[in-house]
Amino acid sequence: MTSSKIKILAISGSTRNxxxxxxxxxxxxxxxxxxxxxxxxxxxxxxxxxxxxLDTDNPPQEITSFRNKIINADGIIICxxxxxxxxxxxxxxxxxxxVSTTIFSNKKTGLITASASGExxxxxxxxxxxxxxxxxxDTTQLLIxxxxxxxxxxxxxxxEETTKALQNFAENFKNQFL
Length: 178
Known about the structure:
By secondary structure, the protein is α/β, with parallel strands linked by helices. It has helices spanning 20-32, 61-72, 89-96, 119-131, 160-175, and strands spanning 6-12, 36-41, 75-80, 108-115, 141-145. A 5-stranded parallel β-sheet has the order 2-1-3-4-5, sandwiched between helices. α1 (20-32) packs across α5 (160-175). It is globular. Pfam families: FMN_red.
């Protein structure tokens, strides 16, 4: 019997173990079940630094594997912090490996920036994802400011407003597939 679940690749922009961004992706993954199969990609730090000379028909194996995960997913969710008013270098690196491809073109995408402030990082995430033609709109993107006070150590969302915002985001993301 083949799975009829919708496959989602969730990418945490944080390389920190058990980060708030990872916890948010776990929350969304649990919320989207049972119709969705969510894989959380946790290997950003294992991707080699982007080098246009290596971005050929035969890129490094880690890049081929990462790109195939995107290709095989029905949709993508990215949840990232903001570092120094920008995207984390590891996430930007991963996305740079996708610029020369069309793997994000019209791919249903949800974008979350969860950080202390996050405004500038969120703007940059939206710009990069528009550039690589990911499919998202105002209902499938979310900025969560002051995230450390909204997610506890156990991964529970402790802010009712944030819980509602994440559920609304997840419903809007899910509706793209229905």
